[in-house]
Amino acid sequence: MGKKKIITKTEIDNNEQTTGPVSVAKNTAKKQVLNGVAHILVSYNNTIITVGDLQGNIIAWSSAGGLGFKGARKSTPYAANLVAKTCVEKAKKFNLTNIKIIVRGVGPGRESAIRGLAGTGLNILSIMDDTPIAHNGVRKPKPRRV
């Protein structure tokens, strides 16, 4: 346990004078992101929009399921439009002004999500389609032996 130290009255007074409340400056300034990239993932079941900076750091995201849509309503164009608007509201806290749009997947909310991002007042620099395309497909089944 070690040696026990007996604290006298003068030592307590000296310690109280040196250990006062220390103020630490907290970094409350948010990151400024002027140019951003919006990734739109549109499937047959859901719509997910993610907004990040040019380095790939995510600053805001939103999905149809997160907004309260359930089942078949998640894949509607109306839900995709609302997802785009809520995601841009979150991103505008970082002073986002210019945006590149990258769309991935096929689904009913594809066009509506782009229109929702365009209607928020952001400058759209480019729209790019990044939908994966199969180049060869799956292997054929072996021939049937009778």
Count of helical segments? 3
CATH class of the domain at 35-55 and 63-129: Alpha Beta
Order of strands side by side in the largest beta sheet? 3-2-1-4-5
One letter per element, helices H and strands E, the order comes to HEEEHEHE
Tell me the β content: 15-25%
From the spread of the alpha carbons, the general shape counts as: extended
What is the straight-line distance between the termini?
Answer: 85 Å
The appropriate CATH architecture of the domain at 35-55 and 63-129 is: 2-Layer Sandwich
Note poorly predicted spans: none
Going by CATH, what is the homologous superfamily of the domain at 35-55 and 63-129?
Answer: Ribosomal protein S11/S14
Subunit arrangement of the protein = single chain
Specify the structural class.
alpha/beta
Query: What is the C-alpha radius of gyration, as a whole number of Å?
Result: 27 Å
Assign the CATH topology of the domain at 35-55 and 63-129. Answer: Nucleotidyltransferase, domain 5
Number of strands: 5
Helix share bin: 10-25%
